[in-house]
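Task: sequence design from structure.
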């Protein structure tokens, strides 16, 4: 709604690309409460929708969602629920994964949303990364940032991601790319 998750995704992608690895940013279609409503498979403009093929071909995966009442948003959950074929074939197994989120309040469910995404990754056998305390901005941020993954707290005083939130996401992207490269070189 405010672009915070997208901003975090771009910060993570900046970190990934800082290592020389290509980053692709994807989104998922909205879902509708009206069962007859559907979204186009390919949007007319903006970022591309994620496909199961995108997941299968990636060497590392960062998954983010806004928090909706202490949980990931329905469109992401709906998409992740469609990955059973990848799960049954172990396609994501051993790929590094990073979760990230944005909430509308300081206690809006950041950690439980991250855990929901992490649970998906664990069920797929992925190697889960967080944002370790060696990222110094975790010690100085006044808003988002957790050891479970990058985050943002969206408030009237903090609509855009802060410098600290950006750097936490950036460094987490660097870690994701380095682990993906390490796995690929084995």
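Answer:
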């Amino acid at each position: 709604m405010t672009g915070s998750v997208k901003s975090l995704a771009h910060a993570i992608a900046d970190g990934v690309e800082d290592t020389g690895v290509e980053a692709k940013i994807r989104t998922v279609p909205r879902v509708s409460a009206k069962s007859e409503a559907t979204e186009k498979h390919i949007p007319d403009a903006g970022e591309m929708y994620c496909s199961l093929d995108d997941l299968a071909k990636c060497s590392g995966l960062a998954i983010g969602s806004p928090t909706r009442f202490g949980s990931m948003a329905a469109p992401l959950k709906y998409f992740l629920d469609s990955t059973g074929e990848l799960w049954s074939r172990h396609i994501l197994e051993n790929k590094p994964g990073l979760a990230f989120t944005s909430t509308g309040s300081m206690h809006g469910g950041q950690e439980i949303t991250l855990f929901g995404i992490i649970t998906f990754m664990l069920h797929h056998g992925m190697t889960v990364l967080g944002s370790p305390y060696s990222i110094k901005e975790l010690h100085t941020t006044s808003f988002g940032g957790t050891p479970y993954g990058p985050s943002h707290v969206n408030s009237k005083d903090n609509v855009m991601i802060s410098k600290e939130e950006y750097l936490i996401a950036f460094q987490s992207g660097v870690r994701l790319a380095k682990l993906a490269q390490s796995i690929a070189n084995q």
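The chain has a mean pLDDT of 90.
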